[in-house]
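Per reviewer request, we include the raw input and output of the structure prediction for the construct analysed in the revised manuscript.
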Amino acid sequence: MDKKVQTHIPYGFVIGLAMVVVSALLEVTKLAEKPGMQWIGAIIFLVGIILEVQAYSKANNAQITFGNAFGSGFKASAIVAIVMIAWGFISLLIFPQIFTRALEKAQTDMATKKMSEEQIDMAINFTKKYFKLLMVVGALFSTLFMGAIASLIAAAVAKKAPKSTLMNQ
């Protein structure tokens, strides 16, 4: 089979950068604190992965399989994950209130769950100590999980050549 034209690298970076810009705008405008605003990034991500897989199909004249399409979308998701992890560290430097807000929210959530003061203090201390690690693991897991789902959807709707055409190559 011929070598496929790859589109995941430029699309992964563009999707990631679009998500960074939106995230920064939400933080600057103080809208990041509003409920539901995180869905904006998720929508950009989903639409971006679908567009990436469609571009991959078009660049390869639809001579792709479901697996090729899924793989291209998932690779783009991995690039987005790397961009978002880098942005996470940068955003903590630019917007230190993110860390404070996360701790306050965690404390409020735990108090709502009727946890004892001792349990809350232990959890907050743990969070302070491992915040960056938790941020990396959370961003990696959530981006790749959403990326797998988005890639499945994108691969299902991407234009693919009939199986007989693909087998004759």
